[in-house]
Design goal:
This protein is α/β, with parallel strands linked by helices and 311 residues long. It has one domain (5-296): Arginase, Chain A. The protein has ten helices and eight strands. The protein has an eight-stranded parallel β-sheet, sandwiched between helices. α3 (69-86) packs parallel to α4 (102-116), α7 (198-204) packs across α8 (206-219) and α8 packs parallel to α9. It is globular and about 55 Å long.
């Protein structure tokens, strides 16, 4: 196993969701032993502490439902710059924080990949596609918008930072999706995002679906970012999230995905998002998420030889 230099960056962002508590996520990941789990696997770990947003600007949008636009825009700017810098220094693991933070991480990591001359791919593990624009969101919760922004969908100009390298929608694979609004469904189909909902996972299994995507990334010599939302998991095993949707990924499905990602050797950066310790049960969700990251970084029950074509 090749050891990595893992850089932890806390992002206590909660303004993108409709309830309080995600700002405690970075502390919960640290208390659950994330750094120690990585070090036990032979990786070096550098904890850069918590990021702070840039100064807020006065922003007003015609959609009256939108909440905390100045705050989320400020976080997006700070995260985009931080992700771009960290992408050249090691393997960033950005610990949140709600999923609005992905607007910044996707933008920054994509910019870094573009400067390297390599295509940028995203594995989006989530119950939701987060493909709303500022115009289409009805809840006004901006954790539902990061993928739309990062792929250059219209309507973010003048509010969020300009994109140096928009993410290609056809380079995104979403798995675990099971809560999609009508506007998102239409936009996803038009954009060409690969979406594997829970029915597809039930019918085909996570292995073949993920393997096909990883093969595409490897053949393109791509840079892969993984964005893992707590609500990707079934709430029966991961209750510490404010957006529980029944019927999520099982313990074994989630670990299989992480083990396959490790075997691929393709992952360059990770987001861990939507952990709300206020809703958790004695740290149960935080500990599971740390265990999944450990699987991604090489922890396994038995050593198995890497299959040809997967590395």
């Amino acid at each position: 196993m090749t050891s990595k230099h893992c850089i932890l960056l806390g992002t206590p962002l909660q303004e993108g969701t409709g309830r309080l508590g995600c700002d405690m996520g970075p502390s919960a990941f640290r208390a659950a032993g994330l750094a120690g789990a990585l070090q036990e696997l032979g990786h070096s770990v550098e904890d850069r502490g918590n990021l702070a947003p840039t100064p807020r600007r006065q922003l007003h949008h015609a959609n009256p439902a939108i909440k905390n636009l100045p705050e989320v825009a400020a976080w997006t700017e700070a995260l985009s710059d931080a992700a771009y810098r960290l992408g050249a220094e090691g393997m960033p693991i950005v610990i949140g924080g709600d999923h609005a933070m992905a607007a910044g991480t996707l933008a920054g990591f994509s910019r870094r990949a573009a400067e390297m001359g390599r295509p940028f791919f995203v594995l989006w593990l989530d119950a939701h596609p987060d493909f709303h624009t500022l115009d289409s969101t009805q809840s006004g919760n901006l954790h539902g918008c990061p993928v739309a922004y990062a792929t250059g969908q219209p309507g973010f100009e003048g509010y969020f930072p300009p994109l140096a390298a928009p993410v290609r929608p056809d380079h995104i694979c979403m798995m675990g999706i099971r809560s999609v609004d009508p506007a998102e469904r239409t936009a996803l189909a038009a954009a060409g995002v690969t979406v594997h909902d829970m029915r597809a996972i039930d019918e085909h299994g996570v292995g073949p679906l993920l393997q096909a995507f990883l093969r595409r990334v490897a053949e393109a010599n791509g840079v892969l970012h993984v964005s893992l939302d707590v609500d990707f998991l079934d709430p029966g095993i991961a209750p510490g999230v404010g957006t529980t949707v029944p019927g999520g990924a099982t313990f074994r499905e989630a670990h299989l995905i992480m083990e396959m990602l490790h075997d691929s050797g393709l992952v360059a950066s990770v987001d861990l998002v939507e952990l709300n310790p206020f809703l958790d049960e004695r740290g149960r969700t935080a500990l599971l998420m740390v265990d999944l990251v450990a699987s991604l970084m090489g922890k396994r029950v038995m050593d198995r030889p890497t299959r040809a074509g997967t590395a």
